[in-house]
Amino acid sequence: MPAQVTVIDHPLIQHKLTLMRRAETSTAKFRSLLTEISMLLAYEVTRDLPLKTESIKTPLAVMDAPVLAAEKKLVLVSIMRAGQGILDGMLQLMPTARVGHIGLYRDPTTLVPVEYYFKLPHDVEERDMLVVDPMIATGNSAVAAVSRLKETSPKSLKLVCLLAAPEGIHNFHDQHPDVPVYTAAIDERLDEHGYIIPGLGDAGDRLFGTK
Ligand code: URA
Q1: What is the residue with the minimal CA distance to atom 7 of ligand 1?
Q2: DSSP state of 206
Q3: What is the atom index within ligand 1 of the atom nearest the CA of 134?
Q4: pTM
Q5: 6, 106, 123, 138: which one is catalytic?
Q6: Please, what are the domains in the chain?
Q7: Could you list the pLDDT tens digit for every one of the 211 residues in the chain?
Q8: Which of 32, 124, 181, 197 has the fewest Cβ atoms within 10 angstroms?
């Protein structure tokens, strides 16, 4: 596995992921589990955020206390539409984060990803960026999204997903070897339709109840 890939195998994440995989798990439960896992992923992925100290007064004393050092808030970028599920969880943990969205579809004849939506906050070059998408299957959307986002020169960039296929990880790493990837699991393979096996089905459909 490429060095830039971290599998976050925390027992709580693994347990919740198994509940999400179960075919009988309801849309409401799937959604709340993704929110919970995303908070745990965010906790791990932000582990290296730099701190500085600030002088504060507790009710009893003055102390130099740690606070996040970055001048500008982090930006979370959701790859539409299933990225929304991770975004919601991460925002519960980091409510002041800024949010961007990127929407891409694959042109059915050329198979080239086409951008249909792109909106980011200002001053991205001064912000750390987390790009979120639950499923890295072929990796093509993540590759295209990150290529586009790199044009905006964020201070740092990480890709966070829930599940990945080995094919997608390798494709992404080939194109973006400089971008760390965080995932809760790497499954066996892709099927002939580009679904992750064993996976959890279509994350967007399960999240939004569209199937
Ligand atoms: N996208 C999904 O939602 N599920 C997969 O298995 C692959 C891509």
Answers
A1: 195
A2: H
A3: 3
A4: 0.95
A5: 106
A6: 5-46+74-208 (3.40.50.2020)
A7: 666 999 999 999 999 999 999 999 999 999 999 999 999 999 999 999 999 999 999 999 999 999 999 999 999 999 999 999 999 999 999 999 999 999 998 777 776 789 999 999 999 999 999 999 999 999 999 999 999 999 999 999 999 999 999 999 999 999 999 999 999 999 999 999 999 999 999 999 999 999 8
A8: 197
